[in-house]
Amino acid sequence: MAASDHSPASRTDPAGSYADDLALYRQKFQQRLPAALEELRGPAHGVVDLPLHVAWSGLTSYDLDKPRQRMGLYRTVLHEGLREDLTSCLNQDVLLELWPTLRGLVGRTVRTVWEDTFPQLARRGQAAA
Question: Which of 4, 13, 64, 121 has the lowest tally of Cβ within 10 angstroms?
């Protein structure tokens, strides 16, 4: 009898489970990405109020003219935002400017998905290294 995906044998393989979880996590972020960075048309200055599904605790209003808050907003939206949040809250030019630092503040999966999809981000990250 063949083991199913839910059998004890498949659950005891931590490497397989981790790889499966990682693949699902990558897929989650890939589905949220815009087709092109040019779709990121959010503001470059001023105050942005994030919706509750993006920032459900802590700071929800970010002043983009304050460097720490700008970096915090981008980190939060990259991790928690849906496609509509990415395109309305993030700005292409600001993302490109912040990426060399921001790539070290986001999780590996987020960084990899964005850099694999948008080579210009990967190049900016490599140039800063």
Answer: 4
Instruction: Please enumerate in sequence order all residues whose Cβ is within 8 A of that of 62, keeping only pairs 6 or more positions apart, or say none.
Output: 47, 48, 49, 50, 69, 70, 72, 73
Alpha helices in the chain (DSSP H): 8-11, 14-32, 67-80, 83-89, 92-102, 108-117, 119-128
The structure tokens listed for 88 are: 């309305």
Of 102, 105, 100, 106, give the one whose Cα is nearest residue 124: 100
pLDDT of residue 2: 47
Structure token pair of residue 67: 């460097």
The predicted model scores a pTM of 0.80
